[in-house]
Amino acid sequence: MSLKYTCPVCGTPLGYKGLCWKCRSGQERDTVLHWSPEQVKEKQDGLVRNIRRLADMEDPELTDFWKLLGYRDAITPRIQRAALAAEVYYPCELYYHAPEDVRDGLIHVLLSAENSSEASELMCCLAMQGDDRALETLLELEKHPRPWRKNLYVDPSIYAQCGGWTFDKEGQRMQLNFDTCYPMVKGEPGEGSPIRMGQMREDTCPHCGGRMVDILVLDGRDERLRFLGLDGILTAACCPNCVGFLDGPAFSRFTLDGGVEVFPSRTFDGTGKMDCYVRPEEYKALTENRFILGKSSVPLFYGAACEDVNTIGGFANWVQDWEYTACPHCGKPMKYLAQIQWDTLMDGTEGTLYVEFCPDCHVVSMQHQQT
Ligand SMILES: [Zn+2]
Ligand SMILES: [Zn+2]
Ligand SMILES: [Zn+2]
């Protein structure tokens, strides 16, 4: 395809006339952020009226749902009650922190579920609701599996993770994500930020010979990042070329004074050798990106509603299923920290990098997913 046009906003070469997909997504988000209270109400009313269409993934309902949830945090108990009444259990994010009556309704349907796909959907919904009764119910189902359990791959405690938490054998809750979310935004050249992505390192990758990068460096002492509970610097280092070809996530360990140690890794095919596909101009774009931490926090699902936003905290937009990494040091599930959309750093690259960390061991996991 010949690239004879350019995006009028950002200048990216395009094979068609108009905005590039990232600028279009950004414009749509801007529009939603400027919706008046009346416009929000109108969208909410529309959802309640046509809630069945949401389960069938019909538009505009599905798009409106993600806009209301992701950009305006505007999924109300009224919508949740309408969904329950119409037996709509998709998307499960509908039920995030739903009120008790809705929770009890979900539990009732889950406990009477007879097939595994229904049970699976309902466990996700209950995970999103996420309170102590939800935990008790999932724990009970884990201890005393129903017949449908044998048709599912994982236990209820793994389903709980989709709501950003889980529990151990004793029913002890573990929170896996943060209830604060900040976006990365484009800053001016030289503008200060407690977060940087894609800083070039001195060392090279043992698999491909390309330069390693500190894909994420953040200073937890910045007021906005206090919610992370880090009294210093977190550094996540990986090879941008190989991180998607490893046998599992890439790991590194950080010290609060800015130090980092990269863990040995194995390539997916076991050979230990990779070609370097990241071209010099992509390295340049990656290491010269202008992303900085946004000034204000955003709704928790801000980064889950689109594919062009990098976020710290909140919920990720998992390309495949949600997947929390077990800490290679202590074995506990790690906490979800950030999502980095490769295409925002290097044009035309695919996939998402999910960054997690273990607050006890100071180990960082970097997991790549793509369609
Ligand atoms: Zn553009
Ligand atoms: Zn490499
Ligand atoms: Zn650990």
TrEMBL record:
Organism of derivation: Enterocloster hominis (ex Liu et al. 2021)
The protein's name in its UniProt record: DUF1963 domain-containing protein
